[in-house]
Every structure is written in C-alpha cells, then in structure tokens.
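Hi Y.,

Following your request, here is the sequence exactly as I used it, all 272 residues.
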Amino acid sequence: MTKRKTGHDYEISDELWTKIKALLPLPKPKKKAGRPREDDRKIMNGIFYLLRTGCQWKALPRCYGAPSTVHDRFQEWQISGLFEKIWQLGLLDYDDEEGLEWEWQAIDGAMTKAPLSGAGTGANPTDRGKKGTKRSLLTDGKGMPLSAVVDGANRHDKMLVKGTLDAIIIERPFPEDGIQNICMDKGYDFPDIRELVEEYGYSAHIRRRGEENIRIDIPGYRARRWVVERTHSWINRFRRLLIRWEKKIENYLAMIHFACAWITFRAAGLFG
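Below is the corresponding structure, written out as tokens. Let me know if you'd prefer a different format.
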C-alpha cells in the first residue's frame, strides 16, 4: 500500500532553509502596530507546498498561515528577486561541489497549458488553439538549468534563443577558456540561429531538417541534447508549473526559478 504524502513531505529541508534565510530581504517597516509578522520559514514552506502540489492559493493548508498572507509574502519576495537569487546560489554551490559542465550545453522549449491567459501566453498550436505558454531552457552538459525564459505557446523556438542565452543567471566562462558547444534539435535549423550562437561563442550542433535520426556507433560517443528534455521533465514534476496558473508572467517565472533552485541544490547533494 502506497503511503500518502503529508504536508511535511513537501517542506524544504533545514539545509536549504539555512541557504535561503541568508538571502531574505529586510521586511518592510510597519506603519502601525498590529499582529507580529508571520514566520518566514513557515511562509516559504507554504510557497514550496503550492509549487509542488499545484493547489490553489486559497486551498493552502492553514498550517502555513492565511493564504492571503502567503501570497502577499510571495509577491514581496518575487519583486525583490529572491527566487532568482536562490537559484544563482544553488548553481554556485553545485559548481563548487560537482562542477558545471560548460563544454556541452543544450537548449530546448516546452509548452504547457495556461487556462487563465495573461502576459507570455498565446494560442497553443498543438492544443486546438487554447491558451498556452512556452518555456525555453538552457542547461549545462549534465542538465543543470542555467537560464529560463517564457513566452506565448505560438512563439517559434528560434525566437527565444537570444533571450535564453542572455538570461544565463551566473557568469558564463569566456569561450577562450575552452570550447563551448550547444546542442539543439532540428527546430532550430535556421542560418540566422547558427550565426547567432556563433556570435555568442558557441559551436552549434543542430540536426538538420529532413535528416533522419541515425544511431551513431562510435566508441565513446554519447547523446547530449537529451539532458535538457530531462530537465523539462524535472520541472514538470512541480505541478504548479505543469499547468500555468499565474496570470502575471513575473510570478510564473519566480515559480520556475524556485523549482530550478531546488533542482540544483539537490544535485549538489545538499539534501534528499
């Protein structure tokens, strides 16, 4: 019999909280006396619970505080850029522990439903024109997320390449420090994309349109683009991201940043 998960199974670890606590912005001073400020860790656990389960804000268990309080704190932290900072720290920790593999990077897009519409959504060409959003992701050679951007589902993958490369959230080593390759599927097979990635210092590895998927039997050869597809799958395990419920694109990106932070910290062996 499968044991049902409880709220505590979705709470962040002590080790991760120690990292996050050091990044928290100072709370805004109160204009008048009132109730004491809700505990930051309890609120962060509530946000993480919502990210993992995909529940509505108003359906958050009361053990995390009033849903309106959790949402207000999420907005406060989103505006301060906290979730992106957590992701940055996670990548730096991972780089110290395991080492980011800059030599081989991969980029790909994934579409999800967006029933509430909002900025960064558009008609989904694969879902009868219903509203959807596209997430473009860049990873290192092991699948660690380096950048993420969001646009409408009707935006072609090639239109998001420059924004994705510009959105790398930590300093990228100069290509002079070593060869950097970027792997892309044949949906990116356009002359302007090949020129663009070359300008960014990459050697492009793009399957050409019409080219069959041929198995390569070369000693030591390994496929490299699949890691970004796996990372998209990891992100979709956070049910708040499997379907986009945030109308504001900034809120949706903050949720993506938090998920990417959890992925990198876990890969660094911080917990779990």
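The longest strand covers residues 104-113.

Thanks again,
Q.
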